[in-house]
Write a structure and sequence with these properties.
Layout (H helix, E strand, L loop, with lengths): L1 H16 L1 H21 L4 E10 L4 H4 L9 H11 L3 H10 L9 H14 L1 E4 L4 E8 L2 H58 L14 H32 L3 E5 L11 H20 L5 H17 L23 E5 L1 H40 L3 H38 L4 E6 L12 H26 L6 H5 L14 H35 L4
Antiparallel strand pairs: 1-3, 1-6, 2-3, 4-5
Helix pairs in contact: 1-13, 2-13, 2-15, 4-7, 7-12, 8-11, 9-10, 10-11, 13-15
Length: 523
Amino acid sequence: MDSIRALIYQYLRAAWRRRWLGVIVAWMVCGVGWVATYTVKNQFESNARLFVDADAILTPLLRGIAADSAPTTQLEILQRTLLSKPNLEKLISKTDLDLTLNGPSDRERLSGRLAQEIKVTPQTKNLFTISYRDKNPKLAHDVVQTLLTIFIESATGSNRTDMENARRFLERQIQSYEQQLRAAEKRRADFRVRYMELLPNDMNPNIGALEGARAKVLQITGTLQDAVIQRDSLRQEVENTPPMLVAEGGNAMPIGPVGPAERSKVQDAEEALRNMLLRYTEAHPEVIAQRRLIESLKGRVAAPPAPGTPGANPAAPAPGLTTPKRSVPNPVYDQLKIKLIESDTQVASLTRQRDEATRTQDRLEKISREQPGLFAEYQNMDRDYSVLRKNYEDLLGRLQSANIAQAADTQADKVKLQIIDPPEIPRIPVAPNRPLMVTAVLLGGLAIGLGMTVLFGQLDRSFSSVDELRTLGLPVLGGISVLGMAPLRQRLMTALRFGSAVAALIVIYSGLMVYILRSAALI
């Protein structure tokens, strides 16, 4: 501990002996530094704050209806691309910076310097600042104002340009899909016309024409079988029912000529035949059955009154008989005969329908065997048509959304831009920080002066004390000390002169600080 204290004392004593060297170095350093500080040119900063309302009232109202242009994302992109080369070229042209350029190389260097010196700083999600420093305050203001104008134009114009390009692209795609859709519809219609009987119908697309024909044949066959059974049953009843009945003479009504009821039946049957001939040919089963019915009715009308006695009155009693008997038509037989004829007509009609359905089924089965991939081809064609139609409808919906979004951008304030702090021409420089520089120069000068005294003290080979001399290993007889008031006064005067030199340096520093602060309007 004593050795360290002695070493420190030795350094201080050596520095004190060379104190004036330190003062001279400190003065030189401070003088040169302060002069250099004032040669640094002032830097003026101009800035502007811009507020962007990307969540305006119109944006949530149009969400899901119009195309979402993502204004927040666009503004982030604008902030990052504001200092792009095209914008910097536009900035140089609008601020007349190109007047000081001598060639393309100067323009490139200026663009690079502007890209580094212009600051776009986001403060919040919707608030950011544009700032620029230059030795010319007006130029700093012009640069910030021009950048602000470029940003607003980009924010309002780029979105509209992108929306217009998107709308034109959608229109071209819609025209292309419309042509493809029309061609697909024509191919589909031609295919359906060519193979209409084999393809599924629109009412039941799951059942094809061949399956429908088979089902129709089965249905008609079942109905025909029921009709044949009913006809055979009626025919059996007709065979078991007598056409004439024998009645007693005293109790029966006399039968004379044919009554008007029989003639009316014949007339009705003939009228029905005429109506059938208007719709069918002579070979039609219903026409043939109707002619048979007419012949049967006419035969009954023309029948003789009683067998074995031509021209006799059937109501008259036979000779030798006490109770006269006669034959009368059986009305039940007549009704069964009519029903049988109608049943024959129905069976003939069903037979014709079954034959036609069977021929249709055979023809469709033949076509189906000859072209097994017909239905698969139709399914592929229908699938392509469905895809084209879906894409076409989606594109139409997107076009409407784009039109609404474009109208919102052009006719309403979808994104609101508001300049909070417009740029102004700065009057007070923001750089360099002269108070800090002057203080740094003072502290640096004092430190360098002290360092020089210590350094030169280390280079001195003289001995300042008896103890240092004894370290050589030689016998030391003693030391001579100076006593009295004169050396003390001399030391005081020396210290006073040294303090005055240092105080003068500090006074100059204080004066410089006062001047700087007054120039900056801080005091």
